[in-house]
Amino acid sequence: MTAAFFADEGPPEAEFHPGVARRMAHKTVAAGALIRDPTDRILFVVPNYKPYLDLPGGIVEPGEPPSAACRREVLEELGVDLPTGRLLVVDWTPGRGPWSDQVQFVFDGGVLDPALPVRPAADELTGIRWLPLHAAEIRASLRRRLSLALTALTTGTPIHAEMGHRYH
């Protein structure tokens, strides 16, 4: 982001009723990259903190744009600096178990050679898997989200979803 973006907005708003903003609900925002190989397999990460495969990516930090978070998280998790491609899907998922509800952005991570050396972050991943979507052990909502992301790759149009279901 540039300073010009903030300059266009003018000064920050003053809070009319102190404490109101702090009491408002806050959602978790996450960003992930759909990375494919030349045979259209998807790069999944194997987290050490949950039982399912996931996309490379993670939580967006306060003040960080989702696209920048995606690039940062891919670099942190895989040791590969990939430019963030276009937005494919924005999906909302409800809170479940220890996780709060989330707004999840899926960006095009491009096509990588599976021989490219990646180094999964040992503090949060136990490995990676290159798999076709149908063979991946993932939550149903992620399977639907990725199916929509593949559609968005083909059509060129980002998709709004809720729990992996296209929202019309």
What is the secondary structure topology, with strand pairs?
Blueprint lengths: L2 H7 L10 H4 L4 E9 L5 E6 L9 E3 L6 H13 L8 E7 L8 E10 L13 E7 L8 H16 L3 E4 L2 E2 L2
Parallel strand pairs: 1-5, 4-7
Antiparallel strand pairs: 1-3, 2-6, 4-5, 7-8
Describe the structure.
The strands form two sheets. The chain has a six-stranded mixed β-sheet with strand order 3-1-5-4-7-8, with helices on both faces. Strands 2-6 form a two-stranded antiparallel ribbon. With 168 residues, it is α/β, with parallel strands linked by helices. 24% of the residues lie in helices and 29% in strands. Strand 7 and strand 8 form a beta hairpin. The model has no long low-confidence stretch (mean pLDDT 92). The longest helix has 16 residues, at 140-155. It has helices spanning 3-9, 20-23, 66-78, 140-155; strands at residues 28-36, 42-47, 57-59, 87-93, 102-111, 125-131, 159-162, 165-166. It is globular and about 55 Å long. The protein is built from four helices and eight strands.
Relevant terms:
single chain; 168 residues; alpha/beta; 24% helix
Largest sheet, in brief, is:
6 strands, mixed
**Runs with pLDDT <50, length 5+?**
none
Query: Per DSSP, what share of the residues sits in E-state strands of 2 or more residues?
Result: 25-35%
Rg on CA atoms, Å: 17 Å
The geometry reads as: globular
User: Which structural category fits the helices and strands?
Assistant: alpha/beta
Fraction of residues in helix: 10-25%
Tally of DSSP β-strands: 8
Order of helices and strands: HHEEEHEEEHEE
Count up the helices.
4
Mean pLDDT: 92
Strand order within the widest sheet?
Answer: 3-1-5-4-7-8
Determine the N-to-C terminus distance.
31 Å
